[in-house]
Amino acid sequence: MTVLVDADLEVTLDRPGEASVHGRLRGSASRLTLELDDPGVFAGAADAAAVRGIAEVLAAQGIVLSVESGGERLVSLGAVAAPWWQRRLTGTRRIRLGGLRGAWTSARSRSRSTPSVLPGAGLTPPGTLWPLLPTMRRRSRRPTTTHDPSRGGDPRLVLTRETALPGDRRPVFRLVDGMTLGSDPGCSVVLAGLEPLHARIRHDDRDEWVVDAVAGVTRVHGAVVASQILRTGARLDLGPHRLAYVREEYADHGRPFGGRIGGEAGRQLPQPPRAAVQRDSP
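RESULT FIELD:
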């Protein structure tokens, strides 16, 4: 795999008790050049292991980084092949010295015990998870499902309006088992223009939220229903009022794994039965 880059970056490295080091990283495609005003800044023995690690990473990506100072190339790292005698000095074939000046700079920095300037392993960011496209795998190792053992996901109804001004807040009704909707003041959600008890919403044993019509007309996505399971994004019409059902993706059962595996047009992997998830959860 070859990575293509386009770089033009100026850097300044502050060293405690010593003068700052200035450099410029530039390049395109798979060739980079790092110009430094202090050629021995990274050549000390304390940074040798880190430099070898950088060289191996660059090589794996097909990138060559040339380090220069005063217009002269000192060393190349990455997708290079060093001669055998240089490998004895650097400890890797992925670092190729540019000439006598490069060898002399490295030897001088090692002899004077140049302190480490590169970050240690504790500051190195983690690598990218592989594969980069997990949805292309035929088998998934993800334990995640949309069967939330705690039956959460903040299910709610949001009252929508055909005309809304910027900054307007839409009423939100959190769902509870046995919620009632109608025009009677005793209902959980009171909306004018409905039957006294127009509809009821219940939470069943399968962790589904279901709307049941009681009186009047109840529609889901425009279709008249007597009883209907609600999925995230469902449009619920009660008389002149329109509400949208929303539940967080990790707990909504509309698609396997919240739709994360396979995508809209991909191969949907089956989830484990809900009973098994409920039984195995703490």
